[in-house]
């Protein structure tokens, strides 16, 4: 249900499929007009999500670009504002995970993981915050962390470190931007049922067996937490990385 007196606009990165798609659709259901970001090879996916948003009666926009490139991210924000009129919420959702031990990791894979998972959040938030301030302040920055931002996984050193960095960035951004009325929060999912697990269902099933609530997390579960962060109900919450993993770990 929409809670807004006038349309608000959200940008969601990595929104062509999976968790990002679920977030984009949930925000549309909440009354947002939504810019759907994906990279060039995912533009058809982004267009499909835009069509789903429009079927819900909201405006959608396919914002194609690379969230690891500063000029591209600045362009994503300016194009979103040009197409939808303003920006109120930025969800830095795009991410990557590789199961690689510390001894087997390469510098190249480490750099790529940080470029997408951490630098991508920084660039998205920086461009969005500048836009929020130019509009007079206010706005919500939201990012994808993970349960491993609270307790690292031994076979995911680069991923764990990149998500710990998101948690730190969230705390720093919250302190810096509070004077502008901007909040910064991150969501920390657990074992989410997405295409990431298609080629390793045995590991997926084993991990699901460790979840106290007895089922895998669905993208819509994550979207419900992001919906709260994007809503006015979270106006007094900032700097938090909230675990939502079915009870696997506790902070």
What this model shows, in words?
This protein has helices spanning 18-29, 43-55, 70-84, 107-134, 157-177, 201-208, 219-230, and strands at residues 8-12, 32-38, 60-64, 89-92, 139-144, 182-189, 241-244. It is 43% helix and 16% strand. The model has no long low-confidence stretch (mean pLDDT 94). It has a 7-stranded parallel β-sheet with strand order 3-2-1-4-5-6-7, with helices on both faces. It is built from 7 helices and 7 strands, in the order βαβαβαβαβαβααβ. The chain starts with 7 loop residues before the first strand and ends in a 7-residue tail after the last strand. α1 (18-29) crosses α7, α3 (70-84) packs parallel to α4 and α4 packs parallel to α5 (157-177). The relative contact order is 0.14. The protein is globular, with a radius of gyration of 17 Å. α4 (107-134) links the parallel β4 and β5. With 251 residues, it is α/β, with parallel strands linked by helices.
Keywords:
single chain, alpha/beta, 251 residues, 7 helices, 7-stranded parallel β-sheet
> What is the helix/strand order?
EHEHEHEHEHEHHE
The portion of residues forming beta strands comes to 15-25%
Count of DSSP helices?
A: 7
Question: Distance between termini?
Answer: 31 Å
How many β-strands, per DSSP? 7
Low-confidence stretches: none
Q: Calculate Rg over CA atoms.
A: 17 Å
Q: What overall form do the CA principal axes indicate?
A: globular
Biggest sheet, open or closed, and with what strands and sense?
7 strands, parallel
Lateral strand order in the biggest sheet:
3-2-1-4-5-6-7
Tell me the structural class. alpha/beta
Task: Give average pLDDT, whole number.
Answer: 94
- Which percent range fits the helix content? 40-55%
């Amino acid at each position: 249900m929409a809670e807004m007196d006038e349309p608000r606009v959200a940008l969601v990165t990595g929104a062509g499929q999976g968790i990002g798609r679920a977030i984009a659709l949930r925000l549309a259901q909440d009354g947002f007009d939504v810019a759907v970001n994906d990279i060039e090879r995912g533009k058809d996916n982004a267009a499909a999500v835009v069509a789903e948003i429009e079927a819900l009666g909201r405006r959608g926009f396919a914002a194609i670009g690379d969230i690891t490139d500063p000029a591209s991210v600045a362009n994503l924000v300016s194009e979103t504002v040009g197409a939808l009129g303003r920006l109120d919420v930025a969800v830095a959702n795009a991410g990557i995970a590789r199961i690689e031990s510390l001894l087997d990791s390469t510098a190249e894979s480490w750099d790529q993981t940080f470029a997408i998972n951490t630098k991508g959040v920084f660039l998205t938030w920086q461009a969005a915050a500048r836009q929020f301030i130019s509009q007079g302040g206010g706005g919500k920055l939201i990012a994808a962390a993970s349960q491993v931002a609270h307790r690292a996984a031994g076979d995911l050193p680069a991923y764990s470190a990149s998500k710990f960095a998101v948690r730190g960035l969230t705390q720093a951004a919250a302190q810096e931007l509070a004077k502008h009325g901007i909040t910064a929060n991150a969501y920390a999912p657990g074992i989410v049922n997405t295409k990431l697990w298609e080629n390793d269902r045995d590991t997926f099933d084993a991990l699901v067996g460790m979840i106290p609530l007895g089922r895998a997390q669905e993208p819509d579960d994550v979207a419900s937490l992001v919906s709260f962060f994007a809503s006015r109900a979270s106006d007094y919450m900032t700097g938090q990385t909230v675990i939502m993993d079915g009870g696997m770990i506790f902070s």
